[in-house]
Amino acid sequence: MDVRCQCGVVAFKTPTPAPMSVYHCHCTECQKQSSSAFGTSAIFPAEGLFPLSDELQAKLGCWTRPANEGRTMDCYFCKACGVRVMHRIREADGKERETVVIKGGLVQGLNFEGAKHIYVRSAVVPIPDGVERWDAEPDKMEGRPEKTKE
């Protein structure tokens, strides 16, 4: 699938022909990042995109922010137009996840059917009936290590 930022400076192909999953995230961080009611995330394997090529890396800026449970999030954006392109989570031990989250609005031809809604406890718009939804994050999420039971 083709990915393009708003100005077209950042352009690349996704590592696989389709995402592993699509989420509409209603958390307050995604609301701020998208300047909207929610952010749409297409989950892809990081392999094939990371490590970033020198050409792509030269066009992207990176801002790292804290995330839940001691994790951090490397947020990549176009240096020309400022649009968030993708992010990748680092676990508390510093290990990068095996997945990358590409912002759904930049993935040409992305199929939104069956998208899951997460962090609906912060939703500012109605969530459609009959969709998969979680108050926070799902128990199982692509790329996230399994939670251990204590």
From TrEMBL:
Residues 1-135 form the CENP-V/GFA domain. It comes from the Eukaryota. It comes from Echria macrotheca. The keyword Cell wall biogenesis/degradation does not apply. GO terms for molecular function: carbon-sulfur lyase activity; metal ion binding. Belongs to the Gfa family. InterPro entries: CENP-V/GFA (IPR006913), Mss4-like_sf (IPR011057). Coiled coil: none annotated. Keywords: Lyase, Metal-binding, Zinc. This is Mss4-like protein. The lineage of its organism: Eukaryota, Fungi, Dikarya, Ascomycota, Pezizomycotina.
